[in-house]
């Protein structure tokens, strides 16, 4: 399948990666003129990209002062992960029970892609992490729930990336993901619910400790 990527899409991906990687630091201004010149796009697609980043909770704006990178917030992290706790464990358990053979292969492939990205120290780990978690939810066929889980992962990606920075965190996350997938493949809904809850709670606790520090 050929997927057309507009100038707005490309600008969105470049700026988003710079924010997630902290190349654009919290509270730093988004200089539209310089970005437009550097990326070779006009103001219209650039503003479309910035609007999407605003919806993702990555940038804000001041009247007459333009866009800026939003700071990491313990309140936002708590809100995002609390919402995940309310939705994702039950959704993943339902997904496990409803999964077909192709669904199970898709989930396995999603985790393998995430593990390969982590082994090669790639920069798209958070995107692969989101794809894996959504793969556990989607088989239940609940479109709104799946969209909400995906959206919460998008908003929380900065926190997940920061959470994985300390040495050893990625190894723990890999173990938790593999254990969660094994329970999911066995269609053990109760275990999936418990493991998913523990996984989200552990990430939240670590991240809140980092933010306080």
CATH fold description of the largest domain:
Four Helix Bundle (Hemerythrin (Met), subunit A)
Mean pLDDT: 88
Structural class: mainly alpha
Beta-strand content estimate: under 5%
Roughly what percent helix?
A: over 70%
Q: Strand count, sense and closure of the main sheet?
A: 2 strands, antiparallel
- Shape-level CATH architecture of the largest domain: Up-down Bundle
* Total strands: 2
Distance between the first and last residues' Cα: 46 Å
Strand order of the largest sheet: 1-2
Can you tell me the number of structural domains? 2
Helix and strand pattern: HHHEEHHHHHH
Helical element count? 9
What is the CATH homology-level superfamily of the largest domain? GntR ligand-binding domain-like
Radius of gyration: 18 Å
CATH class of the largest domain: Mainly Alpha
What is the molecular shape? Answer: globular
Q: Ranges with pLDDT <50 over ≥5 residues?
A: none
């Amino acid at each position: 399948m050929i997927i057309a990527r507009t100038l707005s899409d490309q600008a969105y991906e470049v700026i988003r990666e710079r924010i997630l990687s902290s190349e654009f630091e919290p509270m730093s201004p988004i200089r539209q003129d310089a970005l437009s010149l550097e990326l070779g796009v006009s103001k219209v697609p650039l503003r479309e990209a910035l609007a999407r980043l605003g919806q993702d909770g990555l940038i804000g704006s001041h009247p007459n002062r333009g866009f800026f990178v939003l700071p990491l917030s313990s309140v936002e992290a708590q809100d995002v992960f609390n919402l995940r706790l309310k939705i994702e464990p039950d959704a993943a358990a339902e997904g496990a029970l409803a999964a077909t053979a192709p669904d199970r292969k898709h989930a396995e492939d999603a985790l393998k892609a995430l593990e390969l990205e982590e082994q090669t120290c790639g920069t798209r780990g958070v995107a692969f992490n989101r794809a894996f978690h959504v793969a556990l939810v989607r088989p239940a066929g609940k479109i709104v729930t799946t969209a909400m889980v995906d959206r919460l992962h998008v908003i929380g990606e900065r926190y997940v990336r920061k959470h994985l920075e300390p040495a050893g965190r990625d190894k723990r996350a890999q173990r938790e993901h593999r254990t969660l997938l094994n329970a999911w493949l066995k269609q053990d809904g109760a275990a999936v619910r418990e493991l998913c809850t523990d996984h989200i709670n552990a990430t939240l606790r670590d991240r809140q400790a980092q933010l306080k520090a």
